[in-house]
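pasting Pkd domain containing protein for the record, 650 residues
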Amino acid sequence: MKKSIHYIYFALLLLVGWACTEEFRLTAEAPSVEDANFNFQPTAQSANIIQFTGVGDFFMMKWDLGNGATAEGRTVTGLYPLAGTYTVTLTVFNAGGSESFSREIVIDETDPTLLDRPVFNLLTGGLDAAEGKTWVIDSTRVGHFGVGPNPSVNGDFPEFYQAQPNEKVGSGMYNTRYTFKLENFQFIWNTGGLVYLNAAQGSQFPGAFDPGVGDLSAPFVSPGGLTWNIVEEEGRNPVLSVSSPGFIGYFAGGRTYQIVRLEENEMFLRFVDQSNESLAWYVRLIPAGLQVVPDPEPEPEPENPDVAFTLNDLVGPGKRTWMLRPGAGSFGVGPARGSEAFFPNGTDISGDRPCLWNDKFTFGRDGVFTYNAQGDIFAEDYMGLGAQGCVSEELLSGTAAAAWGSGTHAFTFTPGTATEFPKLTVRGTGAFIALPKAFNGGEYAAAPPRADESVTYDVIGYDPETRALSLSIDISTDGSLFWNFVLIPTSEEATGPQEPAPGAFTLQDLIGSGTQSWSLEPAVGAFGVGPAPGSDSFFPNGLNISGDRPCLWNDAFIFQADGTYRYNANGDIYAEDYMGIFGGGCQPESNLAGTRGPLGLQAPISTPLPQPLEIPQRKSRCAGQELLSPFRKPLMEGNTVKVLRVKMRR
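structre below
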């Protein structure tokens, strides 16, 4: 049977052709019943989902949707899964008073699919959860409460401020329980006797006081009988609302919350500050009773970051051009180096911001850094262009933000050390990599950028195989907020006469004054095997095994100017099964006699050496070159290639 909707007027009949009311009436004349009239119609999604629109437009319009839910605004949506008759009432307010108008709607058929919705099930526990689902503020997690810009600029997260674990103890925020039931859309608000408020809302709560953790707290007990409602619109985050006087987490004047994220064990909400609409607040909740594992303490700075990235890697044979790597994880902000947990949290936004992903950053051996915007930029409010998103670079011309356009600057590169990451510094008015507004210790709130400013980025990772370069910049004053970027090189490299690359390993380094003997360095990382050059993660994974295998560490590898190479086992060898010598470990070299294993100390073997021998490496570590395997052992098993690492000294 075709569904239909019927209605009965509870007020005076309206005159045909009644004129529209003025917007936001603030006169002393109270509104009339006609002013509170409204229209309604089923949505395309379902005949049981009804959209209501007030005929007039007032500064405050409150709805009782007749299904246990309430809402505010001129246009609202009501959900009616069950067949029945519902009385919907709109109350409008102006400076002269208020007036209400009611209509009755009839839902002909039950639509159980409207109750079995993912967002409802996650919020309430679903049809089988008779007692509903109870949520609490996730007090042990960084960023469980915070504030950011409205509208959002870099994503929906508390960009301006994130509360630390348990920072608001004593405010009442952590005592409150929020229970959502599917039955009659009940919202059970157990405040524990105390609520937490924005300072601008204190006048609404008698007895409000300073709890000593910022803003205000106030004694308050829920009157009961509250409800909840969720409105879902295609292309937008769901909106959760609760009836007055209820609120969730922190009262900033409103009771409507954008659901940024709703999962089985997490709900992340965003709501606009009603006393300052340029701000948006955030609260993060978890189910009550959930075994909470606090965020681990930030790891200390690594004693040895061990990022093998050099100036040669940056500039190539003369100059090298870099761009953001397409895909997720290449551009974001979070609480640690390499993190993008605040934004975009694993989402690939390269398609949303193509004008960022086509930017080119070129570094030359002459110390010149060039930025090429490729004709378009990603405009944000701080630039003062009156535009948002991808726009023509020409909009920068003649503005205070002009220095953030394409241009030439200077750069310096600082190699890494045992305790410091390599650093890349760009210098000049408006110089930046990937994001114009980010600088060390902060972000620009408005143009222009400071004159002749330098911005330094930590090189936190480099993959020599993919040439993915990971950069990080701390924009906080306490190491709590980092922008992170991953760049890859383009094919645009200048070639031509170049000076010898600093740190190249030459024949002279190998043979010294004519003959030079090498042996394994007695240290961590001198001998091992792993999935990449320089890695010993398969074995021994960071251990110093020189004391366990002294018969390897006393071996001598001798190179001479005439091309002769000699090996001297110094009387003992490290035996393994592949040699056909049983027992393993250090044994006399004489045990090799009569076997088909390694030949031990031999007469000179002529081996032509390349001229020159170029092995890229920092000169200070020439003793750590990956030159030779000191044993003859297969380097491939199945389809797995093993990369040997040996580190020798003279």
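The chain has five helices and 44 strands.
The chain has four domains: 7-114, 118-287, 311-494, 507-649.
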